[in-house]
């Protein structure tokens, strides 16, 4: 039995619905003879999208296949993804599943290690990423003046990355596509200016859709997957600015914390240039990437200017010059070694 099949055989679909207090449940036979549980959408509690709380149930869970779908939201995913969404966990490795498993229950550390293996996109047992219908983006496909006038994000970037604006929450929308599917989106607060009101809640600056698979993906990866060289930055905003400057081979890690799965994706590129922020978290993330990549691909890193990342540049020539002057991994590693000897 495969790793995923083993875990799914012990994941009790009915126990999951009971754990989250699903309402208006009824069984029906699926078209292939499996059992489906129709119920009021659980996702409504963490990501409201129904006008009446889904009293006329629009969600369906297949008991045998462990697949969940909300037809109103256009979201579908593996049962593990539903739990991740409900818990608003950054990754599957953060889930606590003990009360939802049947059969032999492993120790917490063993179970977490098993789930982490399912996050490895190169594994045949990898859990499917969640997916949304792209139709959900249609009301947001407009450009906000903050992006155009203050950040210098042009039309080309809006079109390539399908950037938008949600007037209901007054936030910029960064849709996230991976493996050809819309797997979620990140929204960014807008600062107050004379020309427009700011987002009411500025903190956190970035918000993700529940269950956002940032640990297992790279932003804009689909657009650069066939490139020989890739630049890796921390934020989607920096990617958008790069596209506006005519530089399209950039991906983002959604922050300075980089996972093994993201590193594995970057190892597929013949050349990687790291451009992280000049702060403690950024420097730690850069070090992690350089040490993890240099044996597998040609690796270098930009020496960032204090207080500036790629998203703060307006001159494409300056950006290209900075990239050309990136420091090779061998020199960076030697600097790390000297710093370690100095501290000791």
What does this 3D model show about the protein?
- 31% of the residues lie in helices and 19% in strands.
- With 344 residues, the chain is an alpha+beta fold.
- It folds into 3 domains: 126 residues, DNA Primase, Chain A; 77 residues, no CATH class; 123 residues, Dna Topoisomerase Vi A Subunit, Chain: A, domain 2 (3-Layer(aba) Sandwich), CATH 3.40.1360.10.
- It has a 6-stranded antiparallel beta sheet. A 5-stranded mixed beta sheet has the order 12-11-13-14-15.
- Strand 3 and strand 4 form a beta hairpin.
- Helix 6 crosses helix 8.
- The chain is globular.
- The N and C termini lie far apart (49 Å).
Kindly list the characteristics that best describe this protein.
344 residues, alpha+beta, DNA Primase, Chain A, Dna Topoisomerase Vi A Subunit, Chain: A, domain 2, 3 domains, six-stranded antiparallel sheet, five-stranded mixed sheet, 12 helices, globular, disordered N terminus
Tell me briefly what this model is.
The protein has helices at residues 3-10, 13-19, 79-87, 108-118, 145-150, 155-161, 221-224, 236-244, 260-266, 280-293, 316-324, 329-343; strands at 26-29, 35-39, 59-62, 67-70, 75-78, 131-132, 164-166, 171-178, 181-189, 206-208, 229-233, 250-252, 271-274, 298-301, 327-328.
SSE topology sketch:
Layout (H helix, E strand, L loop, with lengths): L2 H8 L2 H7 L6 E4 L5 E5 L19 E4 L4 E4 L4 E4 H9 L20 H11 L12 E2 L12 H6 L4 H7 L2 E3 L4 E8 L2 E9 L16 E3 L12 H4 L4 E5 L2 H9 L5 E3 L7 H7 L4 E4 L5 H14 L4 E4 L14 H9 L2 E2 H15 L1
Helix pairs in contact: 6-8
